[in-house]
Amino acid sequence: MRPARVIGSGPNGLAAAVVLARAGLKVDVYEAEAIPGGGARTMELTLPGFRHDFGSAVHPLGAGSPFFSSLPLAEHGLQWIHGTSPLAHPLDDGTAVTLEHSLQDQERELGEDGPAWRDLIEPIATNWADFTVDALGPVMRIPRRPLLMAGFARKAMQSATTLANRTFKGMRAKALFAGLAAHSFLSFDEPLSSAVGLVLGAAAHVRGWPVPRGGSQAITNALIAYLEKLGGTLHTGRRIMSLDEADPTQGPVMCDLTPRQLLYVAGERLQKTYRKAMLEFRYGPGIFKIDYALSAPIPWKARECFRAITVHLGGTLEEIARSEHAATHGAVAEKPFVLVAQPSLFDATRAPEGKHVAWMYCHVPHACTADMTNHIEAQVERFAPGFKDCVLERRVWSPAALEAMDANLIGGDIGGGELSMRQFFFRPALGNYYTGTRNLYLCSASTPPGGGVHGMCGYHAARMALRRL
Fold first, then answer.
1. Which label site among 277, 283, 353, 455 has the fewest CB atoms less than 10 Å from its CB?
2. Quick check: 199 and 419 in contact, CB under 8 A?
């Protein structure tokens, strides 16, 4: 049986391992940390009994992933939990605009901008299965649905500010779209800053924005259980320091690593032109994250916020645009856009009875050293007065602390690299997954389609490896 080795047990590394194991290869996965999963880990980070997601918390693309959907992960314990609404976005008037599960409800929610929202999102939502096959794959290929993708590209190539102002009349719809677009980690005056917002908006109407029961570790555990059923083996606490340890002469080696780690591991085995491309790869802004153990739910002024697991804090389009412009231009926003996850409202397994957990972060410049705790908590207090009275314990994560827990989070960048035009088409280099070195492949979020817990980077990299075998 031909051997295959995977370096890293994040969702993409495990996806690659499953693809190879299903093809009959003998797969070994090597994970540097004691707990597998990379960004998809759940741990008691504050107080005993409070289970926090270290990295990813809410998974619209996990539930909507073509590859994950093809696997029997439910048989291995993965259960998705949904909020009544996928998302709430509170405003300063004490109300909140929500993202709803159905397009019909969304049209009613947005009033005069409802038809415009439907026109913007419906082509993606109603063709989700075909869209994700094309969108969550290599860029340089002929799409299955060229007209659908051409329509998406016309919108996605616009800046978030331009698309929102051209599409919507009211402040509420513009604010809702701004929060979605901010997941791109791009300044709102840049092309592609709309793309992620369009995809996440459509995902809400198709798959929702769920969390796994028990935390994101459930995704990792289900993938590992299925891999082991296929005969694969996971080795934790095993950091691969050199490619010699993985020995690509015997079979494919899949690296769930960013370019910086690949350079360290592979070194002189990489061709000179490829090494140069890895050295020139650009990382994006970082995040400053806080995990909270709470004595009670966050006391939102807007009752709509209790219907959603995810809450976006940032007020208007203009305010969010200022926040994202600052993070991408080396500055700290006074009022940062804050992403909040409150899974224990809908999943009682996450905290002791009557208690709650919350997970939140804001975007900061790459490798930023500023302490954003007061900035984040001021934004929460703005929309939920009395929040700090509920805090039992907090765990603060600077970009450096995040990188120390997961070496792929360079400078706090959780997206695997900047989503610039060049790195959209050539991510991280022309070959996407193949490094140019025999049997050596990159399968991390630094390859298409990029960040998000969907496993598609690993899926496509492993499929390429099998074709080249």
1. 353
2. no
Co-location of 349 and 376 in the same domain: yes
The whole-angstrom separation of Cα 130 and Cα 320 is 32
Indicate if 27 and 118 belong to the same structural domain: no
Same domain, residue pair 382 and 424: no
How many separate helices (H) and strands (E) can be counted in the chain?
18, 16
Q: For the chain, what is the domain count? A: 2
Q: Would you put residue 289 in left (φ > 0), alpha (ψ -120 to 50) or beta? A: beta
Q: Are 106 and 154 within one domain?
A: yes
Q: Which of 14, 135, 26 is nearest to 462 (CA)?
A: 14
Q: Which amino acid appears at position 301 of this protein?
A: K
Distance of alpha carbon 111 from alpha carbon 411, whole angstroms: 41
Of the pLDDT bands very low, low, confident and very high (cuts 50, 70, 90), residue 139 is confident
pLDDT 10s digits, 163-210? 999 999 999 999 999 999 999 999 999 999 999 999 999 999 999 999
Query: Do 206 and 126 reside in the same domain of the chain?
Result: yes
Q: Report H helices in 127-158.
A: 128-135, 146-156
Residues 6+ away with beta carbon under 8 Å from 235: 28, 29, 30, 31
Task: For residue 290, list its beta bridge partners.
Answer: 360, 396
Per-residue confidence band for 332, with pLDDT thresholds at 50, 70 and 90 = very high
Alpha helix ranges (H) inside 36-170 = 60-63, 66-69, 103-110, 114-126, 128-135, 146-156, 160-167
Q: Provide the H-helix boundaries in 182-216.
A: 195-206
Same-domain pairing of 186 and 96: yes
Residue 162 or 137, more confident = 162
